[in-house]
Amino acid sequence: MKRPINPKLTRRDFINGMALGAAGLHLSPLEALAQGLIPSHSLGPDYYPPALSGMRGSVDGTYEVAHALAREGRAFSLPKEQTRSISSAD
């Protein structure tokens, strides 16, 4: 495949785009907190990423189910309907 003589994407545009993408990877709020670039209160008292996805730590049965999956190769069926809201902050 031949390269075009006059490409539409210039080298400068490519380098600028890569620099912008690389800078974006380093702008994590937790990384900025760790480096002292932003004050700790700027994320708010309720900022806890696992809670946003419904993860709240270990509950009864967590290890039993995990071991049954990993060690015994068991499979579990999905529930027909949701039994409780996963958005509640229990």
Give structural notes.
With 90 residues, the protein is mostly helical. The chain has a domain at 11-37 and 48-70. 38% of the residues lie in helices and 0% in strands. It has helices spanning 11-25, 29-34, 49-52, 62-70. It starts with 10 loop residues before the first helix and ends in a 20-residue tail after the last helix. 0% of the residues are buried.
Strand element count = 0
Bin the helical content. Answer: 25-40%
Quote the beta fraction.
under 5%
Helix count from the secondary structure assignment: 4
Taking the sheet with the most strands, its summary is: none
Report the mean per-residue pLDDT as an integer: 76
Query: Kindly, what is the distance between the CA atoms of the first and last residues, rounded to a whole number of angstroms?
Result: 59 Å
* Class per helix and strand makeup: mainly alpha
List segments where confidence is low: pLDDT < 50 over at least 5 consecutive residues: none
Topology pattern, helix = H, strand = E? HHHH
